[in-house]
């Protein structure tokens, strides 16, 4: 709820007193059941909408989703640009502020529409957002675009100039030509944005056959009881699958081989998917099976859904390192859309083989009970305790005896 409230009551009141809509209000009034889009809206009630490191990361992630799914981008701009106290963390590197404009250029070159609506300040580097957009809209006496604002002009030349005269709607629509459409207020600007999207001649191209969606035969509410919040409790991943796929129909692949990894075909909301779900310790046979199934889905152009619940240890004697590497390679090279849902534990190399964030899933979701780490807490405590014990032994020091449980293992 605090996130929705933005920068607090005082900041919101100041924002709305200027005739501006709040960012989520702008989005609500923009949306309709038409073209699927990516929307990036600055919240000027939080630090003037300036870009912190996490802001840049979030913006770049939105552009990545747009590129992967060929979705038009709409930027609702109301930002003071890079946050100056944090400029070392947002300005010079590859995936910092400048990458936003690089992405805009690349997306536009790929035919992915870039539409900017300037609804407030658009300063310094941020001025490139509307300048590099395919189509841009600006609100009169509210939206401004300039590389250096009035204070910078005064410092450099001694001239006093208003923000509107320096970079307002009249200047950019009538003289500079930076913006294409002149809006009277926020609502008018959003209306113009909807008209711009309508003129895109956008067509959604699907490489898969879509069937009418069906509800699962078993209610999704039962997932709470099946999975639960105790990661040590075993459950059959098929019980989860039957509650998320259309008609609870699941055509399992290699059902009797490598049964600690469940693979098979299904449909979700009418779309075909290949599902890979952990069902115990990932043995060599399971990794081989997973590799085969991933390659099969790539051959048939079927998207992959990974259900992560990684448990146990890797079995080196069974060749899991080599076979696991083959599965990791298959995941890395898969040329179909990948979506990952972490429904339990996600530990160590298993995270890689089951398409963790490093392996480029288009979307990654975590259930509230899920955990991600190099290894589980108890295993980590045991490893650290062993290292401490060996170190003290080399130094000729005696290890103090304590009750052996997880809480004390780190206090040897």
TrEMBL record:
Pathway linked to the protein: Amino-acid degradation; L-leucine degradation; (S)-3-hydroxy-3-methylglutaryl-CoA from 3-isovaleryl-CoA: step 2/3
The protein, known as: methylcrotonoyl-CoA carboxylase
CoA carboxyltransferase C-terminal domain location: 215-412
GO molecular function, one term: methylcrotonoyl-CoA carboxylase activity
Any Gene Ontology biological process: L-leucine catabolic process
UniProt cross-references to InterPro entries, sorted A to Z: AcCoA_carboxyl_beta (IPR034733), ClpP/crotonase-like_dom_sf (IPR029045), COA_CT_C (IPR011763), COA_CT_N (IPR011762), MCCB/AccD1-like (IPR045190)
Reaction(s) this enzyme catalyzes, per UniProt: 3-methylbut-2-enoyl-CoA + hydrogencarbonate + ATP = 3-methyl-(2E)-glutaconyl-CoA + ADP + phosphate + H(+)
Domain CoA carboxyltransferase N-terminal, first and last residues per copy: 1-212
Similarity comment: family membership: Belongs to the AccD/PCCB family.
GO CC entries: methylcrotonoyl-CoA carboxylase complex; mitochondrion
Source superkingdom: Eukaryota
């Amino acid at each position: 709820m605090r996130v929705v409230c933005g920068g607090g009551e005082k900041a919101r009141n100041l924002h709305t007193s200027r005739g501006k809509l709040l960012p989520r209000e702008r989005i609500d009034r923009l949306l309709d059941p038409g073209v699927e889009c990516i929307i990036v809206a600055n919240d000027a009630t939080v630090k003037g909408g300036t870009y912190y490191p996490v802001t840049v990361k979030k913006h770049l992630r939105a552009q990545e989703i747009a590129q992967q799914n060929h979705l038009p981008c709409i930027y609702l701009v109301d930002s003071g640009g890079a946050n100056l106290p944090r400029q070392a963390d947002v300005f010079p590197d590859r995936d910092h502020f400048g990458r936003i404009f690089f992405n805009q250029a690349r997306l536009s070159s790929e035919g992915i529409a870039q539409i900017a609506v300037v609804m407030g300040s658009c300063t310094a580097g941020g001025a490139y957002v509307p300048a590099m957009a395919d189509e841009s809209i600006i609100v009169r006496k509210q939206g401004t675009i300039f590389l250096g604002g009035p204070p910078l002009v005064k410092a450099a030349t001694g001239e006093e100039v208003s923000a509107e005269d320096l970079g307002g709607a009249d200047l950019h629509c009538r003289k500079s030509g930076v913006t294409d459409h002149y809006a009277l207020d926020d609502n008018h600007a959003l209306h113009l944005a909807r008209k711009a999207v309508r003129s895109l001649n956008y067509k959604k191209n699907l490489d898969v056959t879509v069937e009418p969606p069906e509800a699962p035969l078993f209610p999704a509410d039962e997932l709470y009881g099946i999975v639960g919040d105790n990661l040590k409790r075993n459950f059959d991943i098929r019980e989860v699958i039957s509650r998320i796929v259309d008609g609870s129909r699941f055509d399992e692949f290699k059902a009797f081989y490598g049964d600690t990894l469940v693979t098979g075909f299904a449909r979700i909301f009418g779309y075909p998917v290949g599902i890979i779900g952990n069902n115990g310790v990932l043995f060599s046979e399971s990794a081989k099976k997973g590799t085969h199934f991933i390659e099969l889905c790539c051959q048939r152009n079927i998207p992959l859904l990974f259900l992560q619940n990684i448990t146990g240890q890797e079995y080196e004697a069974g060749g899991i390192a080599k076979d696991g590497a083959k599965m990791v390679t298959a995941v890395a090279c898969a040329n179909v859309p990948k979506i990952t849902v972490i429904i339990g534990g996600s530990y160590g190399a298993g995270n890689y083989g089951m398409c963790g964030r490093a392996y480029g899933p288009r979307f990654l979701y975590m259930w509230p009970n899920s955990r991600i780490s190099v290894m589980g807490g108890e295993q980590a405590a045991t490893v650290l305790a062993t290292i401490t014990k060996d170190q003290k032994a080399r130094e000729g020091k005696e290890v103090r005896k304590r009750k052996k449980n997880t809480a004390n293992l780190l206090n040897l």
